[in-house]
Structures are given as C-alpha cells and as structure tokens.
Amino acid sequence: MKNAQAKDKYDCIRIGNQVCFPLYACAKEIVRQYRKPLEELNLTYTQYIVMMVLWEFGAMTEGELGRRVRLDSGTLAPLLKRLEKQGYVSRTRPDDNERKLLISLTEDGDSLRDKALEIPCKVSAGLNLSEAELVQLKALLDKMMLNMN
Fold first, then answer.
1. N or C terminus: which one in the chain shows less Cβ crowding within 10 Å?
2. Confidence of residue 96 (pLDDT cuts 50, 70, 90)
3. In the CATH scheme, what is the code of domain 44-108?
C-alpha cells in the first residue's frame, strides 16, 4: 500500500503545492473586495488601475499606458472609450503623430482622485495582514513581476 504522505511524481501538479492557485484565488477575491467601493466612483477595477496610473504619471500615449497596466490594445481601447464617455479621460491624436493616441485626465477624472483616497484602506482592512506582512507581500510580488519581464 502506497503511503499518502510519500513524495511521488504527481506532487508537482497537486493543487495544494501550487503557488499559482493561491495567487489566482487571492487576486479574484481582492478584485471582488474592490467592487463595492469602486461602484461609488462608477469605476471597474481595471478602470481604477488605469486611473491610478494617470493620476500618478499624467498624460501618456495609449501604448505607454498599456505597458504600465499590462493590458493589450484590444482590452485597453474599449476601456478608455468607456472612461471617455464617463467624462474621466480624453483621447486625442497629437498633430505631429496621427498614429499615437494621447490619454489625458479631464477635470472630472482628476477630481476623482480625492474620492479614491479611502479605497486602499477599505480593501487592505479586509485582508487580515499586518502592515509589515503587506509590505513583504508587495515586495515579493514586485520581485516576481520583475523576473517575469
């Protein structure tokens, strides 16, 4: 009879031994926890990520924005159209390069930043991690992302 605790060739594909599954499950849950506070701003989680980049770095091309938020043009373009329709961003083509699309915050989009200030605290309060643990987790995830590029 085979010992259930013994290592075997299938250990590497057991769900309990994976890093990807808890990352996936936690990411889904965190995004779900953002849903209610973001509804008050009329933003989806992905729109919120885009807005945070624009609040921090200002106007940029669609390509640069896509690289920063790790979204391809097929996903980013409709998202930006919705943000423009909501009055939060403007999309313009510079006179010197008609192929580029410049994404800028509108006055309404910029003023939304103050309303978003409480969101990180609301979400992190539900994570049940100390500040030191959150800092450590963020550092490890940043290291993983850097090594994936």
1. N
2. confident
3. 1.10.10.10
Domain chopping of the chain, boundaries: 10-40+118-149, 44-108
In order of 30, 36, 72, 115, 117, the CA distances from 122 in angstroms are 11, 10, 29, 13, 10
Residues with Cβ < 8 Å from 50, sequence gap 6 or more? 65, 69, 76, 79, 80, 83
What is the distance between the alpha carbons of residues 39 and 21, in angstroms, rounded to a whole number?
27
pLDDT at residue number 105: 98
Does residue 59 have a pLDDT over 80?
Answer: yes
